[in-house]
């Protein structure tokens, strides 16, 4: 991954965050030990029939368990396939865009619900989903919406019934690794620091490990989970895969994440943001699957006086992109500075994609949109998306070279294997600091 390796998975068997979640679930609904819980060294920690709640945490912390705790805990109210279907139907009916998707499948919607109802649900996975439902309900809803969207795309792509079941399982578990991450990652208003982003980047690998230990799940489920944040152009994570290295189920889940991001963060016109993202990132996603989503989007009817002021977004994205060559002029990167080469290559691609999207000249684009409410909203969305991408370049550079962080001590950003001897206060570090500042103030 250009100077970095994939983040290690979060420990899943005795992770403190997940143990706290299980105990919290037990505080709300009866949970009992279904088989005695032993440490890896043979010490019995809890006997069969013991109640699981916050009072038992001290007995489990600090021990590596002989078996995953999900296999040793049971609940009479554990999630069942019919519960998944019922809640998913409620969520789809409450989200206009998803309801529109379902309405466009009049003759095939039964395949969607059948895939959810008939998919394998091992007891340990049912237990995990129960914990999610009781302790992080918005994540539970996120997983169910993801499952519907994935199956909508898969149905339109003419996947077989077997493939739809695999896809349903993968979508339902794609973010299950987040239960082992710090809860602050769920706070979308709080910018993530370097440690937080590394924790976030690990969740696909954690989810893969959870799926891999369930023999009733197809190996393709685990593969799709670990690939759901990859991108065809190699800009994703955790392994920076590209092209044919990403399977068909992973390609669907990549799009699912984008649809959900628009639903959750742009609720007024998610279809507008989704259209912009897919058109601006044509090299990142599967063209055929993107075409399915784009073709299914409803026409947008703007309310009276509904426009979007975009001058701030235009200024920010332009300044952040234009500052890079100026920094390189005043602080020329040394030959072989991999951080600078990475930023340069990503910005060249971003400029090209902006030009293809009609945003090559922000001032001219803003002038063209003046007086056209629909175009104004579209260009504002495009500017916000472009700004997000520019900031993401800064975060990705920081992920590969932590020494670029403002105030970081120690080695230079180019001290990674193959790097140059340039000092820390170089063009790359200055530009990354600008990107991080924008994330903290916008």
Would you kindly provide a written description of the structure presented here, covering whatever features stand out?
The N terminus is likely disordered. 42% of the residues are buried. It is built from 18 helices and 4 strands. Strand 2 and strand 3 form a beta hairpin. With 442 residues, it is mainly α. It is globular. The chain is 57% helix and 2% strand. The strands form 2 sheets. Strands 1-4 form a two-stranded antiparallel sheet. The two termini are 29 Å apart.
- The span between the termini is 29 Å
Helix segment tally: 18
Overall SS class: mainly alpha
Q: What level of helicity do the residues show? A: 55-70%
CA radius of gyration: 23 Å
Major sheet size, sense and barrel closure: 2 strands, antiparallel
| Strands in their spatial order, largest beta sheet | 1-4
Number of strands: 4
- Give the low-confidence spans: 1-5, 304-309, 410-424
SSE order: HEEEHEHHHHHHHHHHHHHHHH
